[in-house]
Amino acid sequence: MKVNIVDWHGVATWHWKLASNDGKAGYVDELCGICRVPFDGTCPNCKFPGDDCPLVLGRGCIHNFHVHCILKWLEQEASKGLCPMCRQVFVHDPEDNPHSEEFEYLQQLEDGHRLLREKGETTYEE
Amino acid sequence: MLKIRQLQKKKLEEAAASAAATADITGNSSTISSNNKITPAQLRLQKDITELDIPKSIKLTFPNSSDLFNFNLSITPQQGYYKLGTFQFTVEINGNFPMDPPRIKCSNKIYHPNIDLSGNVCLNILREDWSPVLNLNSVLIGLNFLFLEPNPNDPLNKDAANVLVKNKTLFAKNVRDSMRGGYVDQEYYDRIV
């Protein structure tokens, strides 16, 4: 038998590599804790999943979030710069993440909260 | 001024500018209705409401079924000091949810260490310990817990807290008297049984 391939379609699937996939955490959390949308979906402000709506992983804690979601949280003074899940100081690993506007902004917010912390607790009480 | 404040301010200005721009667009061409767009807060709130898993003692009522952001809540504790009273609350959720916590106020005037006479509730997760990973369920469970275990260590009604610490029997009596609608220490409380 001879088969002539006339046409073919390649299909690929993708999946974010999550912290919990490394086996560091005992459970797999598939939803962003802040917006409750799966990581492979987008944050509520985006249309297309993937590189346009990246994830971030805390360094020190092992919690993933949509970058856009954690940015919104860290913009709040009430967040005190803490991870919403474990309340440790939220820092991300710049090495691990692409250079983009979002991550620069994230870095700025993290630095801002660090300065506030260094100035003392009183800064938070207005 | 601190950098983070500047960032926030910048962000706000941008938001205001884009809001003004969309207002312009909708003003010019009335076919575009930006009001129908589902906001992130609405999305998240809908999920929270469908996933609610609360004890029978808590009931939610929506006075305006198209408005999920404002609703009423009644709690009827099945045990503890406040057993069988029915306490009404209003819940107000703003457009910045889940970054901002829900605002919960008690509509009755009640005798409780953690609720003041104007109905403000002192619950850590509604204030300083709020986090966007908490949901409506955790808040309602927290509120319910205040009636099972009033906490005298972080009081809004200091007199009630002092009585709870010093004399539990008197506290129980005061709660009973207040729930029936009556005076405790020259203060009148609403009847809620």
TrEMBL record, chain A:
PROSITE patterns: ZF_RING_2
Keywords in alphabetical order: Cell cycle, Cell division, Metal-binding, Mitosis, Ubl conjugation pathway, Zinc, Zinc-finger
Coiled-coil residue windows: none
InterPro entries: RING-box_E3_Ubiquitin_Ligase, RING-H2_APC11, Znf_RING, Znf_RING/FYVE/PHD
Keyword Zinc in record: yes
Cellular component aspect of the GO annotation: anaphase-promoting complex
Pfam family, one: zf-ANAPC11
One example GO MF annotation: cullin family protein binding
Keyword set includes Coiled coil: no
GO biological process: anaphase-promoting complex-dependent catabolic process; cell division
Residue span(s) of domain RING-type: 43-87
Protein name: Anaphase-promoting complex subunit 11
TrEMBL record, chain B:
Catalytic center residues: C122
EC number: 2.3.2.34
Keyword annotations of the record: ATP-binding, Nucleotide-binding, Transferase, Ubl conjugation pathway
Listed InterPro entries: Ub_conjugating_enzyme, UBC, UBQ-conjugating_AS, UBQ-conjugating_enzyme/RWD
The protein's enzyme class: transferase
Reactions listed under catalytic activity: [E1 NEDD8-activating enzyme]-S-[NEDD8 protein]-yl-L-cysteine + [E2 NEDD8-conjugating enzyme]-L-cysteine = [E1 NEDD8-activating enzyme]-L-cysteine + [E2 NEDD8-conjugating enzyme]-S-[NEDD8-protein]-yl-L-cysteine
MF term (GO), any: ATP binding
Pathway the protein acts in: Protein modification; protein neddylation
Annotated UBC core domain residues: 40-184
Family affiliation: Belongs to the ubiquitin-conjugating enzyme family.
Protein name as catalogued: NEDD8-conjugating enzyme UBC12
